[in-house]
Amino acid sequence: MRRVCAWCKKNMGKLPLDTQARKTVSHGMCEECANRIFAELGMESRSFLDDLAAPVLVVDQSGKVLFANRLARILLKKDLEDIKDYQMGDVGQCMHANLPSGCGKTVHCGQCTIRATVMDTFQSGISKLEERAYINCGIPENYKKIDLLISTEKTNGIVLLRIDEVGRGAGW
Fold first, then answer.
1. Full 3-state SS string of 77-111
2. What residues in the chain have per-residue pLDDT under 70?
3. CA distance 147 to 85
4. Are 72 and 151 within one domain?
5. In the prediction, which pLDDT does 138 show?
6. What is the Cα–Cα distance from 73 to 88, expressed in whole angstroms?
C-alpha cells in the first residue's frame, strides 16, 4: 500500500503489505505540510491533536509520553499531568511496568507489541497501520487483558501513537 500526503500528494513511502486496510493508497500529512498548516492557522499542535477523532499519544524515542490528546485522556481516565513524561506502560497501567526494572526494561517488554511498534517506527520511519496489540493492566494476581488496534506515524522526531480500537466491552 502506498502512502501519500493528503495535502501536497508527496509520496510518503509504503505501508507494510500485511496491513488490514483494503485501500491501495493511504493518506497522511507530510512534515512540511503539517508545519505550514499550523503556521498558517496560527494553531498550536496540541489544539490540533485535541480535535482529532481518535485517542493519540505523542511518544519520544525512549518510550516516554510527551502528550495525550483529549480522547486519550478520556480513555485512560487521566489528566495530562498523570501522563506527561511517564513511560507508555506506566500510562497504560501495564502490570509489568511496576516491576523494579520499570517499563521498557523488564523481560516482558521484549514481547510488548505496543513498545515494539513505536520503536520500530522510530528506527525505520515507516508508519504502522492497525497493528494488533494488547496490554495486561493491573497487578499480576488480578489483571485484565485489553486488546487494541494501534497505528503509528513518525514526524518531527516524535511518534504519534493512535489507538484505533479498544477490544469490545473492555474499559481501561
1. CCCHHHCCCEEHHHHCCECCCCCCCCCCCCCCHHH
2. 6, 15-28, 37-38, 41-43, 168-172
3. 24
4. yes
5. 83
6. 13
State how many domains the chain has: 2
CATH code of the domain containing 86? 3.30.450.20
Whether residues 124 and 94 share a domain: the answer is yes
Are residues 154 and 108 part of one domain?
A: yes
Per the structure block, which three cell numbers stand in for 112? 510488548
In single-letter form, the type of residue at position 21 comes to: A
Q: Does 67 share its domain with 127? A: yes
pTM of the model: 0.76
How does strand 11-14 pair with strand 25-28? unpaired
Cβ neighbors of 23 (< 8 A, separation 6 or more) are 1
Burial of 126 (0-12, 13-18, 19+ CB in 10 A): middle
139 CB-side CA count, 13 A: 2
Whether 38 and 60 share a structural domain: no
